[in-house]
């Protein structure tokens, strides 16, 4: 080899090593943060990172041995390239599994879909393992240089098919989220960064397909994994672990945005504060596990009764807060009434062994009240007045009895 060829591997090897360091940091940091609770999302993300690391390692081996005219180097090149193509569809496979988890597809359906996802993956692996004998995806010449095989476009199709399907699934759910007022609509912020993840590797795959000797697709995927990792961390920081709705961290940002968006509309921004009635009694009589079930039930009911684009958070303990752009008094009162009717139905239908209701107060942005703190305080006072009134009624009823 000439000097230029002998050092041709240095740049891609450096890029691969840098990418591997980033992925190792993701892997270890994700493991440290999830040592106690290994959720399905955590496990699949780890598999995505490991698959990408293995691809970068095999690609690095290829760059080191390519062009070295030695039988052992040629055999190393064949084995490493075969493994590279065998591993190629795995990041897409794990990503579509990750997508199904984020989209909250039922577990039984996820298991059935996983079998279908394995069809293109299995076909690609078999063809990759046979390629050293058939030349389908690649050929290694006698002087140990790499040449593309006749069926290489099929390799790209099989490798990125599942990622393309995942992108379509996310777009479908994203569209539905704008039309429906249900639990899935609350995940709309996650759909956006799932789409960002799919676009980046797909672009890298197209580049690799049309440009010879370009193998930076999995380095580009590291960027996508960074997007996924950062957004996943942000979700953990801003989401209440028990209920899956927001925690209070995001309240001020959403309030300011809603005020801007409702500046010229008929309905102003409103803050609703809610507190579970007799929550201590529920904990004392039925235990803390059922107390958690009560909190979860209220969170699900809030998602049902308020609009999909409203901000709903667990403010702390058994207290919730809603920031809504639909701040008409009559509409707010109706929403709270329907919410309590829905919660009562949880007991009447036998899903909960106790009656469940909330006391609520609200405040609408006005010239006097324009900050979240002042609106929360006003709504909180109204909520406690309602709770005190309910307690007086209960006390009066006991005295009559």
Please specify the SSE layout and strand pairing.
Layout: H1 3-6, H2 10-33, H3 40-65, H4 71-87, H5 90-102, H6 107-134, E1 138-140, E2 146-148, H7 152-179, H8 188-210, H9 217-238, E3 246-247, H10 251-261, E4 270-276, H11 279-286, H12 288-305, E5 311-316, E6 319-324, H13 329-348, E7 358-364, H14 372-400
Parallel strand pairs: 3-5
Antiparallel strand pairs: 1-2, 4-6, 4-7, 5-6
Characterise the protein shown here.
It contains 14 helices and seven strands. With 401 residues, the chain is of the alpha+beta class. It folds into two domains: 3-238, Up-down Bundle (Rhopdopsin 7-helix transmembrane proteins), CATH 1.20.1070.10; 246-400, 2-Layer Sandwich (Alpha-Beta Plaits), CATH 3.30.70.270. It has a five-stranded mixed β-sheet with strand order 3-5-6-4-7. A two-stranded antiparallel sheet has the order 1-2. β5 and β6 (319-324) form a beta hairpin. α12 packs across α13. The radius of gyration is 28 Å and the shape is elongated. The termini are far apart.
């Amino acid at each position: 080899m000439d000097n230029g060829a002998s050092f041709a591997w240095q740049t891609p090897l450096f890029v691969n090593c840098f990418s591997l360091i980033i992925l190792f940091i993701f892997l270890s940091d994700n493991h440290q943060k999830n040592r106690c609770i290994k959720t399905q999302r955590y496990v699949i993300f780890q598999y995505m990172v490991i698959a990408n690391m293995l691809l970068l390692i095999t690609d690095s081996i290829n760059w080191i041995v390519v062009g070295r005219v030695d039988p052992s180097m040629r055999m190393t090149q064949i084995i490493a390239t075969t493994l590279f193509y065998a591993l190629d569809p795995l990041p897409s496979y794990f990503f579509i599994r990750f997508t199904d988890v984020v989209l909250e597809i039922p577990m039984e359906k996820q298991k059935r879909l996983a079998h279908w996802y394995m069809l293109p993956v299995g076909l690609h692996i078999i063809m990759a393992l046979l390629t050293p004998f058939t030349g389908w995806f690649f050929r290694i010449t006698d002087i140990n240089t790499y040449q593309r095989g006749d069926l290489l476009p099929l390799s790209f199709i099989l490798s990125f098919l599942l990622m393309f399907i995942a992108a379509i699934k996310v777009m479908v759910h994203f569209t539905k989220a704008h039309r429906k007022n249900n639990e899935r609509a609350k995940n709309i912020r996650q759909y956006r960064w799932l789409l960002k993840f799919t676009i980046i590797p797909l672009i890298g795959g197209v580049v690799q397909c049309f440009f010879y000797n370009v193998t930076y697709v999995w380095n580009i995927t590291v960027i996508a994994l960074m997007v996924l990792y950062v957004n996943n961390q942000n979700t953990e920081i801003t989401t209440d672990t028990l209920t899956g709705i927001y925690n209070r961290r995001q309240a001020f940002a959403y309030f300011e945005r809603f005020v801007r968006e409702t500046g010229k509309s008929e309905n102003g921004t409103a803050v609703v504060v809610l507190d579970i009635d007799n929550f201590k009694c529920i904990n004392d009589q039925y235990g803390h596990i059922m107390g958690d079930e009560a909190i979860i039930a209220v969170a699900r009911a809030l998602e049902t009764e308020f609009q999909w684009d409203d901000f709903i958070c667990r403010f702390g303990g058994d207290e919730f807060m809603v920031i809504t752009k639909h701040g008409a008094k009559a509409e707010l009162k109706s929403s709270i009434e329907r919410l309590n009717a829905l919660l009562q139905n949880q007991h009447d239908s036998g899903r909960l062994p106790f009656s469940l209701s909330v006391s609520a107060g609200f405040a609408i942005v006005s010239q006097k009240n324009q900050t979240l703190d002042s609106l929360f305080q006003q709504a909180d006072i109204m909520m406690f007045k309602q709770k005190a009134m309910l307690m007086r009624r209960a006390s009066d009823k006991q005295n009559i009895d």
